[in-house]
Give the backbone structure.
Amino acid sequence: MILQVSIDDRTHRLEVPEALLEQAATFFAQLDRDMDRGWQLGRTWVEHPDREQRCRIVADKLLTAIEDGNTRLGLLMAGYLLDRLPELESVALAVDGEIHDHRFNLVAAPDAAPVVDIETATPALGLDKLAALARAGEEVTAVFKVGRGYRFSVFDHASGAWRDGPLCGVEVEAARLREAAFKARYEALQRGRAG
C-alpha cells in the first residue's frame, strides 16, 4: 500500500507492506488504548478521541518520525493511518504544530456506497412513505465539517452505533453520497426486509 505524505513542498512516498498491517495489529491496538485515556489536541483536551482525531494524533507522530529520519516508526504510523482510514490516499502534514491543520485526502469510487450497508443496517419495518421519510431523516445526518473535509453519519441498527460516511474533500461530494445513503435508507425502511 502506498501513502503519499506532503510536508511543505516535499512529498514522501511511503510503501507500507500489507503484511505490516497484520503484524502491527497489536501495536495499533496499543496506540488506541493509549488514546482511550484522552489526548491533548492542540489547545483542547479530548476525553475520547474519535477515529478522525486519532488519525490526526498519529499523523502528528508520523510528522515527527519523518523529521527525525525514523523510517520504521514512520511506516508504523503510516500503516495505522491506512488501517484506520482504508480510503486514505495522501496526507498533507502541517509543520506549524497545529494538529487540526493536517489534511487527509480520501478517495472513494464515484458511486461508492456509504460505510454502512443500508440493507443490513435497517430494521424490517415496512413503513409508509411519510413515516419512512421522517425516520430516514433521523437516521442519516446532514453533512458536517470535519477538519477541512466533509462527511455524514448513518445510524446502524445492527450495532446500535452511528457510522461515519467517507470523508470528502468537498462538501458537494459529501452531499451527493449523503443523498444516496438517505435514499437507500428511505427505500429500505419502506420495503423492510422479508424474513
Notes: The beta strands are 2-7, 10-15, 39-41, 44-46, 88-93, 103-106, 144-146, 149-151, 153-156, 161-164. The CA atoms of residues 124 and 194 lie 7 Å apart. The longest helix spans residues 171-191.
